[in-house]
Amino acid sequence: MAHAFSGNPVIPGKQAGPAAEAILARLAAESSPSLQILPFFQGKALVVAFESGKWRLSWQGIEGIAQSGIVEEISKNMVYLGEKEGLVYCAIDATPRQPRDSSNGRAIAARFEKNGGGEAGFVDLRTLMIAAEWTDEEIMGELSIAGHARALLEWHRQVQFCGRCGTITHLCDAGQRRRCSSIDCNYKLYPRIDPVVIMLVIDPERDKALLAHQPKYVSRMWSCLAGFIEPGESLEEAVRRETREETGVEVGNIVYHSSQPWPVGPGNMSCQLMVGFFAVATTFDIQVDKKELEDARWHSREDVQKALSNADYTRAQKATGINVYKTCLGEEMPGRNSSPMNMVAAGEGIFVPGPYAIAHHLISTWASQGSTALLSKI
């Protein structure tokens, strides 16, 4: 099972830090066309979008980056992503240092080459995720590369000063780590990942699942419980604690499902790793923690199956693709109340997150296989 942001096609060919640094230096000095660079602006990736709603990443050569006049010392600021079929992929932050120049991303996008027509612009990855055709292996690969790139660039942005001594840190090993510039400290920093458990709590006897609604969700959307892992805590312990804290429900047996990188979480976290589980409830009365959730309820498998069969995720995906194109034209994105996600479910029924989210796969797996098949893996 390949989730959104997983299945990255360039990571398997990734070189170790010193080797990658030497490769980038050589290719940059030669202005080699083998070097492919993806610019970012305020955490958004440069894409080329089309009126049909399709999009793709707008890779640039080093000459295009240089001609844009945005990035200083290009070779020292490139972040290495990986390699595939003779091409070396990198990302670079094109956000100007002066705040007054940071508002007009469209003007900055216009400085880069379009590479194949369409309209160019910087688009946030959550929008690209919803707009991606999840059956298109190539575009899902591009999404995963963009997620990897954003996670690394955001981490670099957050650790520009040493956490030990406060001195400025410098990018090294082609962006795979940073080092404190103080000779006395010389501390090495490595990219951060924040692990999160996400669980579908099930009641096998009544054939029901516990779903939650958060205030930030669009109307009628329900999903799995989730929470961050505490230091010194196992994954299973985190599943039990988070379920108890948020709903008052106790769980017993726990079954692992899959994991998903999530570089589109809170702004202060460069990348989360969502680790998915099924958890069997041993108590069933719900006491909602209103600080975390708006509501939590038991839903029958029949109702969840109906919600999945009635959901039109393709419609929302295509509408979001059109919004990507409009964003590149300079139009504002729709607000929450007019989000394309409201198109997913017609009428009054619930709906669950789309196929881009691990929550969808946890819920749909239970809905199609039932508790007995899942618990046979214990």
Describe this structure in words.
By secondary structure, this protein is α+β, with helices and mostly antiparallel strands. Helix content is 31%, strand content 24%. It has ten helices and 15 strands. The strands form three sheets. Strands 1, 2, 3, 4, 5 and 6 form a six-stranded mixed sheet that branches. Strands 10, 11, 12, 13, 14 and 15 form a six-stranded mixed sheet that branches. β4 (79-84) and β5 (87-93) form a beta hairpin. α5 (125-131) packs across α9 (313-329). The model has no long low-confidence stretch (mean pLDDT 91).
Helix content: 25-40%
Q: Report the average pLDDT across residues.
A: 91
Number of helices: 10
Count of individual beta strands: 15
Distance between the termini: 20 Å
Gross geometry? globular
Secondary-structure-based class equals alpha+beta
Provide the gyration radius in Å: 22 Å
Major β-sheet profile: 6 strands, mixed
Order of helices and strands: HEEEHHEEHEHHEEEEEEHEEEHHH
Strand content: 15-25%
Low-confidence regions = none
Structure characteristics:
378 residues; alpha+beta; six-stranded mixed sheet; 15 strands; 31% helix; 24% strand; globular
Write a compact overview of the structure shown.
31% of the residues lie in helices and 24% in strands.
Question: How would the blueprint of this fold be written?
Answer:
Blueprint: H1 17-30, E1 35-41, E2 44-49, E3 55-57, H2 62-68, H3 74-77, E4 79-84, E5 87-93, H4 105-109, E6 119-123, H5 125-131, H6 137-158, E7 169-172, E8 177-180, E9 188-189, E10 194-203, E11 208-213, E12 225-228, H7 235-247, E13 251-262, E14 272-281, E15 295-300, H8 301-310, H9 313-329, H10 358-375
Parallel strand pairs: 1-5, 10-14
Antiparallel strand pairs: 1-2, 2-3, 2-6, 4-5, 7-8, 8-9, 10-11, 10-12, 11-15, 13-14
